[in-house]
Amino acid sequence: MLSMFRYQFMQNAALAGLLVGILCSVLSVFVVLKKMAFIGQGIAHAAFGGIAFAILLDLNIYVTTNIFCILVAVMIGLVSRRGKVSEDSSIGLFLTTSMALGVIFLNLRTGYTQDVFSYLFGNILAVNRQDVVMIALLGLAVMAFIIYYYRKLQFFAFDEETAQVAGVNVNFLYFSLLIILSLVIVMSVQVVGVILVSALLIIPATIALLVGRRFTQVVFLSVAVGVFSTFSGLIASYYARVSSGAAIVVVLFLLFIVTFFSNRIIKRFAEK
């Protein structure tokens, strides 16, 4: 099994998967506790619009998509928090519009178009060493932010209203999380794809919350789940010759099913 990692592209894929698994799993805790799952999905789908726009004008895909997703994330936050539109409605508005713009941009592109399928469903084997370095740098910045604001983020995640009364700048934390989500989603697109990246932002923390009892414990369990599923999915995709992103999500789902029913069985025996 380890022989597959003798290839450079597999080493790059493994490093990228490790970094993305850690980043998404840590953010997953805040996404699930703050009920931001739909926001993450909206930003992920907005990435399609940014990718298509970059392809249309022959721009750098990562830079263009990052800017596009950050703008969409901030607009979602502004419309839902300061407008008279519910959060779900504002997310749905920008999600569908971004997807529609993506289709239009691709239709306007004449001649050869890059393989959009790989951006939709991920192609971790195409990750190069430069991509790994970029993900690592982003990871360091994100982790530095989370560690520095850890207590405030924890307070914000569990009780935003009380945190605001206590003097925590909840709007800063909220919009910071939106921007971080945008950056991480764009960097994760090549690993799991636009359509599947939201799974890495939801399922690890969902599993961890079924087992963990303390916040820090949940964070570490979420990371363990994310890293394990990423590596397992990568190995499965290599030998089964299927999409790596899809394999990772299937592993995550199987872990959830096992954890969910194991939890129920343990509780049932404990009640007797």
Topology:
Elements: H1 8-33, H2 37-57, H3 61-82, H4 87-108, H5 116-121, H6 129-148, H7 150-158, H8 160-165, H9 170-192, H10 197-200, H11 203-211, H12 215-240, H13 244-271
What can be said about this structure in brief?
By secondary structure, the protein is mainly α.
List keywords for this structure.
13 helices; 272 residues; ABC transporter involved in vitamin B12 uptake, BtuC; mainly alpha
Structure notes:
This protein has helices at residues 8-33, 37-57, 61-82, 87-108, 116-121, 129-148, 150-158, 160-165, 170-192, 197-200, 203-211, 215-240, 244-271. By secondary structure, it is mostly helical. The mean pLDDT is 85. It has a single domain, classed as ABC transporter involved in vitamin B12 uptake, BtuC (Orthogonal Bundle). 82% of the residues lie in helices and 0% in strands. The chain has 13 helices and no strands.
The CATH topology label is ABC transporter involved in vitamin B12 uptake, BtuC
Give me the number of helical elements: 13
Mean pLDDT over the full residue set: 85
Major beta-sheet overview: none
Q: From the coordinates shown, what is the CATH architecture? A: Orthogonal Bundle
Give Rg in angstroms.
Answer: 19 Å
CATH superfamily: ABC transporter involved in vitamin B12 uptake, BtuC
> Total number of β-strand segments?
0
pLDDT < 50 runs, ≥5 residues: none
User: What number of structural domains do the residues give?
Assistant: 1
How far the N terminus sits from the C terminus, by CA atoms, comes to 43 Å
Strand fraction band? under 5%
Which CATH first-tier class would you pick? Mainly Alpha
